[in-house]
Amino acid sequence: MSADKVLGVALCSHMFKVKALVDVSPGALSHASSKFGIPQDRTYNSVDDMLAKADDIDLVMYHVEQTVKSLRAGKDVFVEKPMALSIEGADEIERVQKETGKVVFVGFMRRYAEAFLRVKDVVQATPKGEINYVSPDRKKRAEQMLQQALGQRARNPADVETYRLLASLSSHDLSAMRELIGMPQSVIGAQRSPDGQWIWVMFQYDGFVAYYEVGIDNTPIFDAHIEVYTKTQRAKVSYDTPFVKGLPIKATLQSRRENGDFVEETIRPTYEDAFMLEYRYLYAAVAEGKPEDLVLFKMVMDALKL
């Protein structure tokens, strides 16, 4: 795994043992190895070197190029979000995963939050046709990836900024949307700010519309939520900043009783953060064989062409 992933996995020592570190930064490797007790001879500057020398590795945590190499070396893989920055990269991972039969687990931690799963239960129990509206808030190698993902549009600075936002902050949001309400039928419309740092999209679903807003500004506050409006209730999951451990992710349910009373319920299922919950699912996928999004990116980018 890379040096920046050690802390979260170290907190799950009853499930995982860190056996080797890979990072292009010698400074990051040195710091992480000394802080978490990883021998220097178990640190590597490339995944090729690690796969050649560390034959006791079961699971690799990395990105597209390294994921494919690790799968072909017979390793299970935790691939960081987004799984790939292009459809071609995603297709390659899928193809090699099928060839090798190894586990590929994609790291979208928001989907594993207990509060999110409570809201998911509410949404999935809603009869078809009763959802009215959904609102989610929220150098060389890089050039090669952008060229592969965008083609000629990689020459347009606004398109580059938009795709970077989709591949970073938006990747969490769109993954959670896909888990909660499924894939949309189409993009009704999409717009962005002149600097590409804000995106507004309307998705058409079967019987309802989802409005998506995401942006980055200089106000130091983290504001991310998904809210589903049905005919009889509203269900909202709110995410706090992921950079402070242990902050609760909460679900808010609003409804009307038969006697006309308005009821609001706030649910905080756990103070265990979503990263730890995600690693539990990862362990189950690798150790117990439990089954484990780029199509949405393409739909948004295609809509922005119009």
Record keyword descriptors for this entry:
3-stranded parallel beta sheet; alpha/beta; 13 strands; globular; 306 residues; Rossmann fold; Dihydrodipicolinate Reductase, domain 2
Question: How would you explain this protein's 3D organization?
Answer:
It contains eleven helices and 13 strands. A hairpin with a 2-residue loop joins strand 10 (224-230) and strand 11. The protein has an eight-stranded mixed β-sheet, with helices on one face. A three-stranded parallel β-sheet has the order 3-4-5, sandwiched between helices. The protein has helices at residues 6-10, 26-36, 47-53, 64-72, 87-100, 114-124, 140-150, 157-167, 169-181, 274-287, 294-305, and strands spanning 21-22, 43-44, 59-62, 76-80, 104-107, 131-136, 186-192, 198-204, 209-215, 224-230, 233-239, 250-256, 262-267. It is of the alpha/beta class. The two termini are 41 Å apart. The chain folds into two domains: 3-107 and 278-304, NAD(P)-binding Rossmann-like Domain (Rossmann fold, 3-Layer(aba) Sandwich); 110-272, Dihydrodipicolinate Reductase, domain 2. Residues 14-108 form the Gfo/Idh/MocA-like oxidoreductase N-terminal domain. InterPro entries: Gfo/Idh/MocA-like_OxRdtase_N, NAD(P)-bd_dom_sf. This is Gfo/Idh/MocA-like oxidoreductase N-terminal domain-containing protein.
